[in-house]
Write a structure and sequence with these properties.
The chain is of the alpha+beta class. The protein is 18% helix and 28% strand. The structure holds zinc ion (2 copies).
Length: 193
């Protein structure tokens, strides 16, 4: 099920900070472990498997303008090697760092770009989601020198580094046939004209 894009993890990373409001200098540690959402929610090559625990640990600090949240989210991402399609995992620790502003401290025309507190709540969900997407490998590799697949037949080159093809590339052969047909058709048309 798709989750609310404005509150990823179904709001499970929303923390009530009402006890810190108006007390600059006070702070409180928060910890929560949430299951990763369905795979296509993040839209990147490496993602936590659905249900994979994401451990979030953060410090909420009261400041004059709002609540400053900083900490980490740790989990394991899974994906496929971009060359050979073998499974790849990536342990990841995303830094969380955001100042949630009190709405009344932000001018109306600046609210769209600001991260605001809502009902005395600090929602770390968007930070975690965006952080995972940024830190995830775009083109994961099972190892830096992965030889990948044979471009002609898809054979795993790692299984036999000597693998190669003696015969002419099938695609090239097909292309030659195409040109031959084309020439024949052209001739027919000339005969008609
Ligand atoms: Zn590979
Ligand atoms: Zn091959």
């Amino acid at each position: 099920m798709p989750t609310n894009p404005d509150s990823p993890f179904d709001g499970a990373l929303r923390f009530d900070a009402v006890d810190l409001i108006g007390k600059p200098g006070t702070h409180r540690a928060v910890e929560r472990t949430v299951p990763a959402p369905a795979r296509d929610d993040l839209g990147v090559a490496m993602q936590p498997a659905p249900g994979e625990p994401i451990e979030v640990a953060a410090e909420l600090e009261s400041v004059v303008e709002g609540i400053y949240a900083h900490g980490t989210a740790t989990t394991e991402l899974v994906g496929e090697c971009s060359r050979c399609l073998d499974p790849v995992t990536q342990d990841i620790a995303v830094r969380l760092d955001e100042l949630f502003l009190f709405p009344e401290k932000v001018k109306a025309d600046e609210r769209e770009d600001a991260v605001l507190m809502e009902d005395d709540i600090v929602d770390l969900g968007p930070l975690v989601r965006d952080g995972l997407a940024v830190e995830a490998e775009d083109r994961p590799l099972c190892r830096p020198d992965c030889p990948g697949l044979c471009p002609q037949c898809g054979f795993r080159m790692e299984d036999d580094p000597e693998h190669h093809h003696e015969v002419i590339d099938d695609r090239f052969a097909a292309l030659q046939g195409f040109f031959d047909d084309d020439a024949a058709e052209g001739g027919t048309r000339e005969d008609r004209g």
